[in-house]
TrEMBL record:
Keyword RNA-binding tagged: yes
Sequence segments annotated as region (Disordered): 80-116
GO MF annotation: an example: mRNA binding
SUPFAM superfamilies given in the database record: RNA-binding domain, RBD
PANTHER family xrefs: OS02G0815200 PROTEIN, RRM DOMAIN-CONTAINING PROTEIN
Domain RRM: residue ranges: 1-79
Transmembrane parts of this sequence: none
Biased amino acid composition, Basic residues: 104-116
Pfam families named in the record: RRM_1 (PF00076)
Protein's name in the database: RNA-binding protein
Origin: domain of life: Bacteria
Species this chain originates from: Paraflavisolibacter caeni
């Protein structure tokens, strides 16, 4: 069972997550998500437990549990949804608009061509 944990203190480590959850059953993996640029915790993480029943018990016991002076939010992790980006973001499927440039033809000064 994959479990998401949010509202983590910035100082929480993977090892501390393992220790917190292993009292409810076998923990396969635990990961605090780090910011790509700063390397600091983003305040949430994921734990994978081998048994669904033990995972549900951990969720029930640890949701709203105070850990490092923060009330944790613990729930079953939802699968990551495919995100469609907007034109401004530049990801996802989108139409290529290209750049309009003057083609340099002196006869037709106003004519343009599309550069891709």
């Amino acid at each position: 069972m994959n479990i998401s944990i949010s509202n983590l203190d910035q100082e929480v480590t993977n090892e501390q997550l393992i220790n917190l959850f292993k009292q409810y059953g076998e923990v396969n993996t635990a990961e605090v998500v780090l910011d790509v640029f700063t390397g600091q915790s983003r305040g949430f993480g994921f734990v994978e437990m081998s048994n669904d029943e033990e995972g549900q018990k951990a969720i029930n016991q640890l949701n709203n549990f105070e850990f490092k002076n923060r009330a944790l939010s613990v729930a079953v992790a939802q699968p990551k949804e495919e995100q469609k980006g907007s034109y401004a973001v530049g990801n996802g499927s989108q139409k290529s608009y290209g750049i309009l440039r003057n083609n340099g033809n002196k006869k037709n000064k106003g004519s343009r061509r599309r550069i891709y």
